[in-house]
Each structure stands twice: as structure tokens, then as C-alpha cells.
């Protein structure tokens, strides 16, 4: 089965200098860079996803802003496609599915941000489209959440998402395990 790598929203906005800094983003990007390099050497097509807001008054991922740009460490090269999305789900109102089909991709490896939002949405949508999916947990990042006075640390948010993926959506592996096997 031909594999494709989907790199979701590793944008400047998520850095400590951005408007929505994520817990562990630097480590996740370093791991993502290893995975992307491996894909390029192995002939695995890489698909970059970039969130962009173009509605007036947007606070984050503003079209044309530095924050909306993909981080340099994981930036696309050559003819690697960049899918620009306006919604949480990278398949919604984009040509991601068509790009995957054009490359005859039959299974996906997913990395990026945020674990509890865009990674969740793309994984579930991909599985609904019958793609086997592997998520590389340490090449993903998220943030602390609060709901009705309960604060959930970023590590717990991330672990809950990875557990949900593993429970019913696909395979969850570490980058070292993926690259070593």
C-alpha cells in the first residue's frame, strides 16, 4: 500500500513567539523534521496543510501574516503540495483527497498540530474515507484546555487524543519506532 505523509499546521503561530503557543511544539517540530526527511529520502509523498483565516477580525492564522506561515524547519520543498484550509478538518473544502488520489496514496501517516483539534479532525475524516492511519504521537503538539473550571494539562489532552485514536481509529507510534521499523 502506498503511504503518504500529511503534515498538519506546523505554523509559526504555534511557536512560543506566536499568538497560540503549544506545549512541546519545538520538540514536536524537531521530530516532524526527521519524519519529513525520511519521507523525502524514501519517496513517500509529503502533503503540507496550512490553516489560514481570511475573515475580518481574525486573531490567529491571519492570511499573509508571519504566524500563518509554515515553520522553516518543516517547510515544503520542490513541488510538495501545500493545502490551504479554512476549517479544522483538512479535507473540508480543500483538494487534499484529490491530491492524495493523484499520488495513489492508500494509507496515511499524520503529524502536526493541534492534537485535540486539527489532528483529530483529519484522522477521523481519513478513517471515514477508508484510509488506514498512523499518528506519530511525538511529532504532534497541543495545549492546556479548560472546561467549566476544570483545567486539563496539555500532556493529558494529548494522551487522551492518542488513546482515542489507538482505541478506534488507527495506529499510534513514536517517531523512533516508526523510523526504526
Automatic annotation (TrEMBL):
On whether Hydrolase is a keyword of this UniProt record, the answer is yes
Q: Is Hydrolase among the key words of this record?
A: yes
Q: Which SUPFAM superfamilies match?
A: Isochorismatase-like hydrolases
In this protein, which residues make up the domain named Isochorismatase-like? Answer: 5-144
Query: What are the protein's UniProt keywords?
Result: Hydrolase
Q: Which InterPro entries match?
A: Isochorismatase-like_dom (IPR000868), Isochorismatase-like_hydrls (IPR050272), Isochorismatase-like_sf (IPR036380)
State the source organism's domain of life. Bacteria
Give one GO term, molecular function aspect: hydrolase activity
State one Pfam family annotation: Isochorismatase
What PANTHER family does this protein's entry cite? ISOCHORISMATASE HYDROLASE, PEROXYUREIDOACRYLATE/UREIDOACRYLATE AMIDOHYDROLASE-RELATED
Q: What is this protein called?
A: Nicotinamidase-related amidase
